[in-house]
Specification:
This protein is mainly α. It has one domain: Mitochondrial carrier domain (Mitochondrial carrier fold, Alpha/alpha barrel). 76% of the residues lie in helices and 0% in strands. The two termini are 49 Å apart. It comes from Anopheles farauti. InterPro entries: MCP_dom_sf, MCP_transmembrane, Mito_Metabolite_Transporter.
């Protein structure tokens, strides 16, 4: 009987050992997988996908911002404008021009995020903030120019809701809008407002991408934050506020240029003088809805981007070797 007790104690000890071994192995595996996620890098097209996803959520705010910016006289609040649109045209009117918004993100944001991400990975971690800011500016310029046609159609489709029925352009979708502009106004018209759109995209990309990386790095090195949702949220919120402040005057000029009828303005300076009639604050018209829209859009874009990176990104060859 004594030998039976000893035998059962040995079996129990062996079983406990293997249970602890399995728990330790699982914990080590989870930790390794977590480290792998943090080391993953984004593919060049992740930024465009993340921005398109964010646009689906923030499009109504973008539409209201455009409507506020293009009105020259009278004052109407964001809530009043929202109520007016919903009462007169229904809730779905807030998503007018969504196809153009998605097309814009898939051209404009894919270009700027792609150039920035590839360039940043090529430059390495020692590039510093100035190098990243210059890279972001160049990426923004390229993205702003490439995305101008879709951006113009997006502005026009959104602005249709405030025009009388006989003055509306009534584009069926983004592609229809592009072809109609080409047929009715010529190829060059597709790039109307390209100068202001490109300038705005430069400051937007610097404010969003380079400042996001800067704030995220500061939070991670502080020791109080990890590479998690809280850090991504705080970094993107700060980047959104900076980007809004940098780009609002150019955003107002770009919106007016793209929504103008042929021959209405004689260049950018004519638009500047026209806007200046409202005083200095005329260049910041629609600032609150711009921030309300850009803040959530920036947050959602980077949250989606980080999730894509951590779950579907790739490891550098040396990182793969190190984890094996």
């Amino acid at each position: 009987m004594f030998s039976g007790i000893v035998l059962s104690e040995k079996v129990l000890t062996t079983s406990t050992f293997w249970e602890r071994h399995n728990i330790n192995s699982q914990s080590h595996l989870r930790a390794t997988m977590s480290d792998d996620k943090k080391k993953r890098l984004s593919y060049w097209y992740f930024g465009g996908l993340a921005s398109a996803g964010a646009a689906c959520c923030t499009h109504p705010l973008d539409l209201l911002k455009v409507t506020l910016q293009t009105q020259q006289e009278g004052k109407i609040s964001l809530l009043q404008l929202t109520g007016k649109v919903v009462r007169t045209q229904g809730v779905l009117a807030l998503y007018n021009g969504l196809s153009a918004s998605l097309l814009r993100q898939l051209t404009y944001s894919t270009t700027r995020f792609g150039i920035y991400e590839v360039g940043k990975q090529a430059m390495g971690s020692d590039s510093g903030f100035l190098g990243k800011a210059l890279l972001a500016g160049a990426a923004g310029a390229a993205g702003g120019f490439v995305g101008t046609p879709a951006d113009m159609v997006n502005v026009r489709m959104q602005n249709d809701i405030k025009l009388p029925l006989e003055q509306r352009r009534n584009y069926k979708n983004a592609v229809d809008g592009l072809f109609r502009v080409y047929r009715e106004e010529g190829f060059a018209r597709l790039f109307s407002g390209a100068s202001t759109a490109t300038s705005r995209a430069v400051f937007m990309t610097i404010g969003q991408l380079s400042f996001y990386d800067l704030v995220k790095e500061l939070l991670l090195t502080s020791g109080y934050f990890g590479d998690n949702l809280t850090t991504h949220f705080l970094s993107s919120l700060t980047a959104g506020a900076i980007a809004t402040t940098l780009t609002q005057p150019l955003d107002v000029l770009k919106t007016r240029a793209m929504n103008a009828k042929p021959g209405e303005f004689n260049g950018v300076w004519d638009i500047v003088r026209f806007t200046a009639r409202l005083g200095p604050l005329g260049f910041f018209k629609g600032y609150v809805p711009a921030f309300v829209r850009l803040g959530p859009h920036t947050i959602l874009t980077f949250v989606f981007l980080e999730q894509l990176r951590m779950n579907f990104g790739y490891l550098k060859p040396e990182a793969k070797t190190a984890t094996k």
